[in-house]
Design a protein that fits this description.
The complex is a heterodimer of chains A (503) and B (330). Chain A is an alpha/beta fold and 503 residues long. Chain A is built from 18 helices and 22 strands. Classes of the chains: A alpha/beta (503), B mainly alpha (330).
Chain lengths: 503, 330
């Protein structure tokens, strides 16, 4: 029998109330290997690494390091057992120096005080080992570029005798040159016998750096231990899975005149020269990876973010920039991705949440006519089949799907003309998703122009009339739902650079 | 069989309705109302001078100054803000009113009233400007005003109180009667009713709560958040100006050292009333009961001839107890 794998994950299950994040994941890692983990947003990659690093307690299943089980949910033990993690959002303390960050939590002590000199020396040695000796050990981290900060994070992991290094989308914030430097570091660690779990959206990187690939989808491993040079189409097919076409309502869209016109909208660096139109009755999907600028685009249209250039017209008239109140008055409604923190007042009754954007309508002689407010809110909640539709219930008591309906009811009540939806089905269970599609379809049929940002490819392809693909703040592709396949979109998302070079 | 089922369902629906209506009520208000009633009962046993018309008038007259200020403070705290400057602004507004009246004729009560209220509004607007346009956090902005307004009061008055004994209009606001009811109590009542209506029955009030509860949701809904935040500090200044008239009238002088620590009394009353310092939740009834609670305790301890130190200890204990009880409700 062969020696046990460096890291082994068996039957890992993680259930949150109402959501299964991981449903039985198996995964292994050998010393001196780069094992890539790929999958769409929400596939369970982050939950998996959090279970491995001890940040999250799995519901079932176990993690083994060198054949020995690691007690769950204890980050310190996991670190002691040699598991180092570099999270997507770098978790460095920006006001401390590089050396202080590297030794944060396991400072070297002299007899009484900290042994600063030893820590600085050690930090320098680590940077030499990583072939980045130019990084100053005594500078505050806030002065370093993101790429250098990443090296600091790696050095921090190495300062703890790391055997397993988990890197969660390390290349997301780096440019080409920096990525090459990072890969040299990874290569070097590999030669030292460190096992590396490398999470990425970018299939080209997987091919460059990886030895093996595991594909996650909906919390399960759909393919594990594939060779990294497996054809991209095969990986994409695994990631996308089968379409859920039966969830989408039948539509016979009729398009009217352009209702929303966005011209050369720019908000550096998130949104770059974006132009498009949406007609009444049309549902426009916006695809892209996290960080592609989709949320910022919607927020810039409404005026929630300052813009650096371009214009937005609604029904032919320009919107003044930076004035969400005017946008709302002209009929532009936004259902934000962060429903709880940006969309709703959770402690408020539903009626107040629904009427908020068009409260002026209920004011009679200076006072709110609460009877008609309640009646109209109730009507909208009923139309959307919200459960419960009692207007006195507090928004915080509702499920995710029903909360989304409350937000939609707000804009329905306000007779909005342009509806901007940011991930409208995120965190919503499958049944409620179908209902939300139905509601959106009805709204479009009633003459609204709908823009829908989504990370769920099936919903973009199966539901939207037209799709824009965004990457790095730009629109890189556009097409009808029947012209762009899920694989095409993913390809545009992950291989933008190739596309842009070709264009 | 099915009839009894229908009946059972109907009964359940009715219960659900009652439950959902009960949710709308502020149970906490009633808890604090119980405390006020308890204090009244204790008072009857403590002293036979307690539950007399003249003593109750005294309690309410004393409560009127902090009461009016607490109404403005409630709006500020609902937006998750704070106004530490009300005590100092009250002194500055009093002195400004006195100075204006002296400059005009020496006895012009109307000039005092207009001057004090206008100056209160002006200082409130300065707070508001620093907070909305200068992006200074409310704690710091009003702490600065807390220092500056006291300085303005001392400087404008040459550190001497200004007598308003001959300004009849001011004296009337502080000590007069209307239809047998002391005027400061009437003013307190009117401001309270106005504040309740404004917070609970107008779109403005709804926006104030929305801004405090979820600023981003408010912005997305088209509410001009900065305007709302600006307005509550002006409102606080206005209430302070009105309180300055009441206090100067009662004491027959506009003192540059008046209103010391008044901000803490007002904040305490608002908080034990159930308005959340985190914003997004506010009750005028609760604030009123909070003001009355402190006023009654002050009065009781006075009737018992207990020293000021004891009062402070009792006040502190009540604040902690009230907030702990509210925590449990959440």
């Amino acid at each position: 029998m062969a020696a046990p794998a460096l890291l082994e994950v068996r039957e890992l299950v993680k259930e949150y109330p109402g959501v299964v994040a991981l449903s039985g994941v198996d995964f292994d890692l050998h010393a001196g290997e780069v094992h890539c983990l790929v999958g769409q947003n929400g596939a369970g990659k982050s939950t998996l690494i959090k279970c491995v690093s001890g940040a999250v307690i799995p519901t079932r299943g176990q993690v083994f390091v060198e054949g020995e089980p690691v007690p769950p949910g204890n980050p310190l033990t996991s670190i002691d057992r040699g598991i180092g993690t570099i999270y997507q959002e770098l978790d460095l303390v920006s006001d401390l120096t590089v050396a202080q960050n590297v030794f944060l939590g396991h400072e070297r002590r002299g007899r009484i005080l900290l042994d600063r000199r030893a820590m600085i020396e050690e930090t320098r040695r680590l940077f030499e080992r990583l072939e980045h000796p130019q990084i100053p050990a005594t500078a505050p981290v806030s002065r370093l570029r993101p790429a250098a900060q990443q090296i600091v994070s790696i050095a921090r992991a190495l300062s703890r005798q790391v055997k397993v290094l988990i890197m969660d989308e390390p290349s997301a914030v780096l440019d080409d040159h920096e990525i090459t430097a990072l890969f040299a570091v990874v290569e070097r660690l590999k030669q030292e016998g460190v096992g590396i779990i490398y999470i990425s959206h970018r299939l080209d990187e997987v091919r460059r750096i990886g030895d093996r690939v595991t594909v996650l989808k909906d919390g399960a491993t759909v393919a594990t231990g594939l060779p990294a040079d497996a054809p991209a189409s095969e990986l994409v097919a695994h990631m996308v899975g089968r379409p859920l076409s039966e969830m989408f309502p039948q539509r016979e869209p009729e398009f009217g005149s352009p209702m929303l016109q966005v011209r050369n909208l720019t908000r550096t660096p998130d949104v770059q020269d974006v132009s498009f139109e949406v007609r009444t009755g049309e549902i426009l999907g916006v695809a892209g990876l996290v960080g592609a600028g989709r949320t910022e685009l919607l927020r810039a249209i409404v005026g929630l973010e300052r813009i650096d250039g371009g214009s937005v017209h609604v029904d032919g008239a320009p919107l003044p920039p930076g004035r969400p109140d005017v946008a709302v008055e002209r009929g532009v409604g936004l259902a934000p991705e962060e429903r709880k923190s940006q969309g709703l007042l959770l402690g408020w009754p539903l009626v107040n949440n629904v009427s908020l954007a068009d409260l002026g309508r209920f004011v009679r002689a200076g006072f709110i006519d609460r009877q008609s407010e309640r009646a109209e809110a109730h009507e909208q909640l009923r139309v959307l089949d919200t459960q419960p539709d009692d207007p006195s219930r507090r928004a915080g008591e509702l499920s995710g799907g029903n909360q989304q309906k409350v937000v939609l009811a707000r804009w329905l009540l306000g007779h909005c003309k342009v509806l901007l939806l940011d991930e409208p089905t995120r965190g919503v269970d499958v049944g409620a998703k179908a209902e939300i599609y139905k509601v959106i379809a009805e709204l479009a049929a009633s003459g609204l122009a709908v823009v829908m940002v989504s990370s769920e490819l099936p919903e973009l392809v199966g539901f939207c009339d037209r799709i824009l693909v965004m990457s790095d703040g730009r629109i890189v592709a556009e097409g009808g739902g029947d012209e762009l396949s899920e694989a095409d979109i993913l390809d545009y998302c992950v291989n933008t650079k190739l596309v842009r070079e070709a264009a | 069989m099915s009839e009894t089922l229908d009946e059972a369902n109907e009964a359940r629906q009715r219960i659900d309705e009652l439950v959902s209506r009960a949710r709308g009520l502020e149970v906490r208000d009633y808890a604090l109302a119980g405390v006020v009633v308890l204090l009244l009962i204790i008072g009857v046993f403590v002293s036979d001078r307690f539950l007399t018309l003249s003593n109750m008038e005294t309690v309410l007259k004393q409560a009127s100054v902090v009461g009016v200020i607490s109404m403005g403070m409630t709006f500020v705290i609902v937006t998750a803000g704070i106004d530490l400057s009300v005590g100092a602004m009250l002194a500055a507004a009093s002195v400004a009113g006195g100075t204006l009246a002296e400059a005009l004729s020496g006895i012009d009560g109307l000039a005092f009233i207009v001057g004090a209220i206008a100056f209160g509004i002006l200082l409130g607007a300065v707070n508001a400007t620093a907070i909305t346009f200068g992006r200074v956090v409310p704690f710091i902005a009003t702490l600065a005003m807390f220092l500056a307004a006291r300085g303005i009061a001392l400087w404008m008055s040459d550190q001497q109180p200004i007598s308003v004994a001959r300004m009849d209009a001011v004296r009337w606001f502080g000590n007069g009667d209307l239809l047998g009811i002391p005027v400061p109590i009437l003013v307190f009542l009117l401001v309270t009713i106005a504040a309740w209506v404004l917070l609970n029955r107008t779109a403005y009030g709804r926006y104030v709560v929305a801004v405090g509860g979820n600023r981003e949701a408010a912005r997305i809904s088209g509410i001009r958040v900065n305007r709302i935040v600006f307005s509550v500090y002006v409102l606080s200044g206005l209430c302070t100006g009105i309180a300055a008239v009441l206090l100067s009238g009662r004491l027959a002088s506009a003192s540059p050292v008046a209103g010391n620590l008044l901000e803490l009394d007002a904040i305490a009353a608002v908080v034990i009333g159930g308005t959340s310092l985190a914003g997004g939740k506010g009750t005028i009834v609760g604030t009123t009961l909070g003001v009355l609670t402190f006023a009654l305790i002050f009065n009781l301890l006075n009737l018992l001839n207990l020293p000021v130190e004891i009062q402070q200890i009792v006040k502190g204990a009540i604040i902690v107890a009230a907030v702990v009880l509210q925590r449990r409700d959440d």
